[in-house]
Structures
1.
Amino acid sequence: MAEILEYECPCCGGKLEFNTGVQTLKCPFCDSEFSLDVLKQYEEDKNENHSDDMTWNTKPGSQWDNGETDGMNVYKCGSCGGQIIADQTLGASKCPYCDNPIVMTGTFSGDLKPDYVIPFKLDKNAAITALSKHLEGKRLLPKVFKEQNHIEEIKGVYVPVWLFDADTDSRFRYKATKKKRWSDNKFDYIETSYFSVVREGKLGFQYVPVDGSSKMDDTLMESIEPFDFKDAVPFKTAYLAGYLADKYDIGSKESIGRANDRIKSTTEQVFRDTVSDYDSVTVESSKVHLTNGEAKYALYPVWLLNTIWNDQKYTFAMNGQTGKFVGDLPIDKGAAFRWFAGILPICVGVVYLILRLIS
């Protein structure tokens, strides 16, 4: 006995029936009509394996040359566990991530050598100016944040970053709708048209950054992006003079997941932006195939300031190349109460006046 194929309506999910009048499969619930060829293609596409294929060749960095790390010391923070590199002339006394004391554990050796470094373009004075501007006009800011001796603790740090290059070949299928509305003397009408929209194509990605330090908050690091790679140069230890450098503690393989998330998110947005002029659009299936995936190791310049207020840590960061500055600010509850108490009578007076005018 021949197998009887049953199809669900792509629009509403109802069971389709063959309509002799129009010689197509028709949905008795939403009146949508489909040819058999269209339905077969739709089912094949729906049942296709849509899992992403994202693999990488993660062998960045190179080995240090003999004598290249001479004069570089390693300091370890007993609080957050951070390992900081600094030359002998600079030294270090506090961790740039948590401000706790750090001690020298020996001379630097081992680990991968960075492929690239983006040198600092903005100095400490520029960072202090940016921080002072960030604090201007903040009436509810605790006084400690405005003290100059605290501002002076801002530190220049080279943050380890894994840079991912890849090409993607992607395919997305969307369910989209358009609504038509009209009225007569009795009723309001809405006609909804359903569309299956397919987008596919290739995108190339270069230098997608992923923070390689567990001490540096990923959200904070991504907030001061973008860094312009055109200023990157092959790494030389001379660029570290006068600055601290963080040793990576998250390897390139462990960073792949974040790189995949960033690449897929951008890919989804680029393709979604091409589906326009619809009232609604939802993704039905997607597949991102990644090729030529490679990782590189670089150091990016960041100015950091950490401080504690009421047992809560606050971190400020500035892009040492572009000057983009970010950081959350605490609120002095006492100042907030006094401010609220001061404006409350004014608010009450305004409300009273409005009520008098409208009564």
2.
Amino acid sequence: MHELSAEVRSAAGSNEQERFAGADRILIVKLSAIGDVLMATPVAKALRKAFPQSYIAWVVEKKAADIVIGNPYLDEVIIWERTRGNNALSKMLNFARGLWRLRKELRSRDFDVCLDLQGLLRSAIVCWLSGASRRIGFADGAEGSVLFYNERFEPVDDTPSAQQRNLDLLQKLGVTCNDTEMYMPLTEADRSFAERFLKMHGLIGRRIVAFCPATTWANKHWTVEGWSALADILADKHGACSVILGSSADIPLAEEIARRCRVRPVIAAGHTSLKQAGAIIEKCDAVVGVDTGLLHMAVALDKPTVGLFGASAWRCFPRKDNFVWVAKDFPCSPCLRHPTCKNTDCMRAITPEDVEQAVRPWLR
């Protein structure tokens, strides 16, 4: 078990024992997405250090479960498999059945504290269904989520990062923490896979740059021409090989980028699990990506990383010496999911030369 460090302190004074009481069984709710779940992982570490004897569990959706499975600060990971249907009625029925099964599972754990780090309706419902006597969430939660909490935390407007915002919720438990380091668990099997994959493609001993070009928001994408030109520039100037990571849905994008290159990148998209992709990232010299889960993973693994931003709220990302932002100063940025342009001007303004300059120090 972990001792309480200088970075994690309980509230001082005579109320300390009272505030720590009733936190024997703690549930963290952060369901998705991959990057968001990663940015919540500092909470697990802070809770374990503050409450070394407590039972700490995390409920997460299946698509992001690999981010927390194997986390040493958790006692259990509870996976919510949200089943879908072919029409609105079947989707609603499957959603209700899945929630009912999840409710039975959560209630059997007898949680006394539930922390909703998501702040959306579905996460707040999960928090409420847990049966915890203390249901803690953000006062600015969306979609009416605040109605399901019996304790609300007012976040400050100038919180430096999403990780710190998550950690600040722990003040309701008398815990103050500023350790925003994310945690990505990898296994030796994942690392062995990465070693075999790189060997199979003749990349052992070569300079390697991982590309993470895909994300669910179309307006966060960079251009295909930009990625292919960058791959050629990195090969010409630094002798670096490019590896394109992503899911099976990203294979067409990866193939299109590769077709336009003189020096063809290695396509790993669709051929790895999330953890195996992380193990490949771990062996790369640098990572370049748009605002996607794999980019967050690279930062969590402490790899030199270049993020390409425009539409997303990238200014609240973690600040690290080996994490560089490339973004143009547009008055409409970030637009989030509501762009006013048709061509994502902010992303098109980023040039391959801009990105090469950012990644250059790690390839010398």
3.
Amino acid sequence: MKNNQDQFEFTGAIFKEGKRFVSLCLELDVASQGRTAREAKRMLADAVSLYLETCFESNIPYLRPVPREEDPRLHPSKDVVDIFPLRVEFQVKAAV
């Protein structure tokens, strides 16, 4: 995971499940889905943004990687369509 001032970079994975595509952020264990791989990626970026916002507002840790035994980088599966960098723009603002 990389962190610039207003952009986070995680690792995303796309899986084919029936007629749908499921997307998963591997560092956060946040998932989404879509009718196409492209839509699943977009929906995952939205889900990660909302997840980060909730974590920062509630002051809870945001990193919670998928278990090693489920990580497609370590245990490849025929259902994996793509593993890609997931860039999410997000600004952290301090509240006083």
4.
Amino acid sequence: MESDLLTFVSSFEGGDGLRVEESLGGGFVRLRVSEAERRQAKHDIRCVEDAVIELLRNARDAGARHIFVSTSREGDLRTVCVVDDGAGIPQNMHRRVFDARVTSKLDTMRMDKWGVHGRGMALYSIAQNAVEARVVQSDVGLGTALTTTFDVSDIVERADQSTWPTVERTGSGYEVRGPRNVLRACVEFSLEAEGLCNVYVGSASEAVAAMRARMDRPLVDAGWVYPDDLAAIPLAQRAVIARDARELAGIAGSLGLEMSERTAHRIVKRQIAAPKNVRAKLLGTSAARVAGKPGHAGRQLSLSREDRDEFLERLEQDFAWLAQRYYVVPNGRPRLRVGKESIRVTFDFVDDE
């Protein structure tokens, strides 16, 4: 009788509205796969910081070298927008990437400090816990801009979201201390992904300022017209080519980073500082300085940690261009050696098979 009833209801609802696949008696049931996935997804994301980690892992696994994170809160709503320069998402998949078990990583499931990634459940889990989760813009080869909004009265976040953690080098890596907020999530991910990608975090205006300062200028011909030709330019590079505040505000808004033209004008005039990547920000300067200036300590050139990181970051961008042309893949971060009369940089790579 119970089986007949389940079949009857299922025939009207197409199975989608029915949580139970089979009644086993004694109060036991077998859940439908969709209901089991929904419950697991609600469990996977327990706080906003968990969602941020999943968004960062997705960008990393899409091959992003630069990830820009903007976060803001109004009342109980926390919004996190992530823009990356990864592989991008085809337009016909913008909605479907939030479905359960949808993934582009059929043969590349990855294990990191947060567990297995590549099951096709990260964005689904985020969508199940968010007020809104959507791909703002993306296409193949152009990177991705994705925004999420959470009700923090429903899914918690750390009360202190303004304090940066501290980072200390240890014999086995790094020790991170501080409140387990969004900033710390970004820092811990960045340290884990060292050599793979750089993470920049701040307000919407700071994220756009970072794009203008850290991304290469795309090649455009003399007849380039805004906004007609914008669609062919990678998302994270679009801020670089904005010629004035009006264009910059329009580009930022199209990426989910809404701002006024006045704020955009401050970015153009460099009145809003571009944040460094979080590793460079927190690892600080440990090299010798003479007379308040970086440089020689005796006859040995000594570079600050901050300058070394930024120098290597720029070289990584240039090598990525070369690697793409000659079908090789960077194998770890470049190594830098400073001598008395030379600076040597070594790039390891493997064939892109």
